[in-house]
# Entry
Amino acid sequence: MDADVSRPRVVVGVDGSPSSYAALRWAVHYAGLLGGVVETVTVWELPGLYGWSAPAVDMDVDAEEARDRMRGELTEVLGGDAFDTVQMHLVHGNAPDVLLRASEGAAALVVGSRGRGGFARALLGSVSQHLSHHATCPVVIVRAETI
# Structure
């Protein structure tokens, strides 16, 4: 990720879930209080790529189409003016690993309490729980209902 050492960085994981959108809004507000910058990180990986089974999907992903879709979603969540204040990153890899690397040296790592997968009654998603145990910066976990 881009490192601007003159301003604090707030890294936020965005996966399209309601709690990740709440985390994004929280991160923008917090970065405003710090005089910092927000780096949104969306991670994509192909199902089965890290497990024992072969991927059941086409390996070709149109990165530009994914970035356009991501821009549209972030603009919808934040509005046009606020969207201009965030740096957007679309990264291929394993979500916890990518977010941990992206958050190195950050003022905070912000994620939603549950992403797109998992069990509906789980209090924390597997990614947010992993990050809370392994991140080298403060981790803020936001529930969709709080914003």
Summary: Helices lie at 18-34, 63-78, 80-83, 95-102, 126-134. The longest helix spans residues 18-34.
